[in-house]
Amino acid sequence: MGRANKVVLAYSGGVDTSVCIPYLKKEWGVQEVITLAADLGQGDELEPIQKKALTSGASESLVVDATESFVKDYAFAALKANALYENRYPLSTALARPLIAKLLVEAAEKYGADAVAHGCTGKGNDQVRFDVSIAALNPNLKVLAPAREWGMSREEAIAYGERFGIPAPVKKSSPYSIDRNLLGRSIEAGSLEDPWTEPLEEIYALTKAIADTPNEPEYIEIGFERGIPTTLNGASLSPVALISQLNEIVGNHGIGRIDMVENRLVGIKSREIYETPALLVLIQAHRDLESLALTADVSHYKRGVEETYSQLIYNGLWYSPLKAALDAFIDQTQEQVSGVVRFKLFKGNAIIVGRKSDQSLYTPDLATYGADDKFDHKAAEGFIYVWGLPTRVWSQKHRV
Known about the structure:
Elements: E1 6-10, H1 15-26, E2 32-39, H2 46-55, E3 60-65, H3 67-80, H4 96-111, E4 115-117, H5 126-137, E5 142-144, H6 146-149, H7 154-163, E6 177-181, E7 184-188, E8 218-225, E9 228-232, E10 235-236, H8 239-251, E11 257-263, E12 269-275, H9 277-293, H10 296-314, H11 321-333, E13 339-346, E14 349-356, H12 364-367, H13 379-398
Helix pairs in contact: 1-7, 4-5, 8-9, 10-11
């Protein structure tokens, strides 16, 4: 792998990405390291992170607020696809990676860098998401991954950083590896590496323990326009505000926790804990609204598309031709997905108790069993005869 003179480094302010700065310069001969920290609504104060990058040897420290794009262009696209990896994980962390990759490529082009870099290790999914996304956006850019190659333990990385003036973490490091953005949190490592061990309550930040949730149910209404959530309890909200408020309301009722063993792309099974209150409820609401607005064949066919779509996101193929083609199909299905879904939130449960839409295909005078029934019952006998004809012919031929 060829080395580079000027590099844009994806920067979080943690040990690994901080150590990447002197390591790239000292060990790999990089002349200039520009760091890029993406604000995706993680709630961290990014000014100290910006200063730490400069202290660690960066020539320039960029901070980009991409929260709105993160929700509108990435989260809502996945929502329209009801994207749940392995039917459980709403891809809150995975969705951030193609956006960060895009910001890296844009910064590299702006500053004339010949490479971009990240601090991913060789065991995770993120290395794939970054490398493949960057290659799709600019195949001429080199991608450097020092932490994948340096072979240092965390203690050795801290010691290496201290040699170049990077202070060791002040307090004892958490045993958990946590990633956070506006969509939620992912928690792994520590005691969680044993799939039999119950997670301690201390790991959660967005969702209350059931014992601490309100003793009365709360009702909320989420409004959609063409598959996109636009209102909460009748009030129009920006995408970021809607996610933020919904996270708080839903998390207050202990809703949004996922504890799963997932299949990583690199072949490893990993026990993961996620907190994604807003995203899980939005997918539940969106899927329910589709049941009113989509025809049966579109609805059934879309289920298979959704599974493929979630795998593409998880596996780092956001910018792939197949993903673009599926987007076109999904966007077409969303033209009539407008309406309101009503939830009852109580003790860890988000229960849909109502839905309505001007585009609804639900027809009361066909569905009713009352006096207003307009369904032609006499037509059923002929329909059943034709529908069952292949089965009847097969049975006459093969059964004694």
